[in-house]
From TrEMBL:
Residues annotated as domain SWIM-type: 51-83
GO MF terms, alphabetically ordered: zinc ion binding
UniProt keyword terms in alphabetical order: Metal-binding, Zinc, Zinc-finger
Protein name: SWIM-type domain-containing protein
Basic and acidic residues compositional bias, start-end: 19-28
Pfam families in UniProt: SWIM
Provenance organism: Natrinema ejinorense
InterPro entries, per database record: Znf_SWIM (IPR007527)
Region (Disordered): 1-31
């Protein structure tokens, strides 16, 4: 094929042959993708144009989509970034873990505090009480808020309990036991197996 352009050379006609090229550019070109929620993404191209992608509908505001109705490089790029874990899929948002800087993708309606895998606590996990440094074993991770759970013995809510005042009253509560029960000559001392209830943020995964 001649490489010198002839003045009479016809304009390139879009064909299926252009599809791998769009695919390649979707991956190789510098673009930044900003998730806006509701399945919408703002894509800024290297040429400083900003387009709006509706991923589930496969739509974009760029000329390639609007005039040629093809799956443009912006839609492809959003799909690639989701597959590779760089941007959240529709219905999810990117937030930071409460206890570290790791970015996690959570449901759009998820409530704080949110944690990465490493900092998520489950029954049986060891946690550290941030106030005392004590280690405890998690018994229950509740969805009830600290300001809605009463501590019977103290006649107040978990949120109102004196040493919990520095913690957000809206976080859920976690029940935990001290790992070593006290064993007397006549058996286990029941009070040593008591479950203590803490605001979630007072405990840290150990
Ligand atoms: Zn586009
Ligand atoms: Zn974390």
């Amino acid at each position: 094929m001649k490489t010198t352009a002839s003045p009479k050379a016809p304009l390139p006609v879009p064909t299926a042959g252009h599809l791998p090229e769009r695919s390649r550019r979707a991956r190789a070109e510098p673009m930044s993708v900003l998730p806006l929620g509701d399945g919408l993404y703002e894509v800024e191209s290297a040429s400083d144009h900003t387009y709006l992608v509706d991923l589930e509908a496969g739509r974009c505001t760029c000329p390639d989509y609007v005039f040629r109705e093809v799956r443009c490089k912006h839609v492809r790029r959003v799909a690639i970034e989701i597959t590779e874990g760089h941007t959240p899929p529709p219905g999810r948002v990117a937030v930071s873990c409460h206890d570290c800087d790791e970015t996690i993708f959570v449901d759009e309606d998820a409530t704080e505090p949110l944690y990465c895998d490493e900092h998520t606590i489950r029954p049986g996990d060891t946690v550290v009480n941030r106030e005392t440094g004590d280690r405890l074993t998690v018994v229950d991770v509740s969805t009830l808020r600290a300001d809605a759970v009463e501590i019977g013995a103290a006649d107040c809510t978990v949120a109102e309990y004196a040493t919990n005042e520095g913690y957000d009253p809206e976080v859920p509560v976690v029940g935990a036991v001290y790992p070593h029960a006290t064993v007397a000559r006549n058996g286990v001392v029941p009070s040593s197996l008591r479950i203590y209830v803490f605001p979630r943020t007072r405990l840290e995964a150990a």
